[in-house]
């Protein structure tokens, strides 16, 4: 049985996992279930000691901590700083039963999911904005976020169908940089938002192979590169940017490649484009 006090719970067997406070940690390998659980319970999961620390530093509120026995000493300062937050510890095999994977990255924390931010608030003062249209892979999204923060992009907008920036894997791949990037969900597709982006002073470009696309090394791209406010649209893995969006963009941009090479992974392509189109 679990050894309990007012705050610390040591999990000794699978029977101890019935504690309702552990619900946020169950079936972490099932992304579809995670979306439902996270929404119902208003939480997100921060994974690894470094990511948990970055979430806390960004002001997010922890509900509980889950860590393997061997990590308690290295995490003692965090636990001491949050004396009212429940702490669950246990041997690896019990935690694996709970989460569905081997917990080898130090710690997990269930955090209160922040309230959605209005698009206007996210755009206020931003010069470079990433627009994520229907990208569904959390690994790709996390990698794109990490690059955007590293290269000084200011904000991110996502369509309703796009992956969740606060899904455990997206956060971990971003190395917690998602907590530094203001983001918001659009009410609908990107095409419907292009007029309002233009009204806010944004030039709108898409990273997509089209007949009119300009190479990122083209002199003709200079007006796009020098735009005071620029929104760059990234499309879904495979299908790319939607045709209705491409019909409205001010320009399409492409990475010049040798014959026989037609594309890069969206995260790799984004890294090149975000560097070339960063604010000067």
3D architecture notes:
It is elongated and about 65 Å long. Helix content is 31%, strand content 19%. The chain is built from eleven helices and 13 strands. By secondary structure, it is α/β, with parallel strands linked by helices. It has a seven-stranded parallel beta sheet with strand order 9-8-7-12-10-13-11. Strands 1-2-5-4-6-3 form a six-stranded mixed beta sheet. It has two domains: 110 residues, 60s Ribosomal Protein L30, Chain: A (2-Layer Sandwich); 158 residues, Alpha/beta knot.
SSE layout:
Elements: E1 3-4, E2 8-10, H1 31-41, E3 43-47, H2 49-57, E4 62-68, H3 76-81, E5 87-90, H4 92-99, E6 108-112, H5 119-123, E7 128-132, H6 138-150, E8 155-158, H7 168-173, E9 183-185, H8 190-199, E10 203-207, E11 214-215, H9 222-225, E12 230-234, H10 243-246, E13 251-254, H11 266-276
Parallel strand pairs: 2-5, 4-5, 7-8, 7-12, 8-9, 10-12, 10-13, 11-13
Antiparallel strand pairs: 1-2, 3-6, 4-6
Helix pairs in contact: 6-11
Which features would summarize this protein structure in a list?
60s Ribosomal Protein L30, Chain: A; alpha/beta; about 280 residues; 13 strands; single chain; about 20% strand; seven-stranded parallel β-sheet; 11 helices; six-stranded mixed β-sheet; Alpha/beta knot; about 30% helix
- Count of DSSP strands: 13
Structure classification: alpha/beta
The CATH class of the largest domain: Alpha Beta
Number of domains: 2
Name the CATH homologous superfamily of the largest domain. Answer: SPOUT methyltransferase, trefoil knot domain
Write the H/E string, N to C: EEHEHEHEHEHEHEHEHEEHEHEH
- Cα radius of gyration in angstroms: 21 Å
Distance between the termini: 60 Å
Write the CATH architecture name of the largest domain.
Answer: 3-Layer(aba) Sandwich
- Return the CATH topology of the largest domain: Alpha/beta knot
Strand order of the largest sheet: 9-8-7-12-10-13-11
**Which outline best applies?**
elongated
Low-confidence parts:
none
Largest sheet: 7 strands, parallel
Mean of all residue-level pLDDT scores: 89
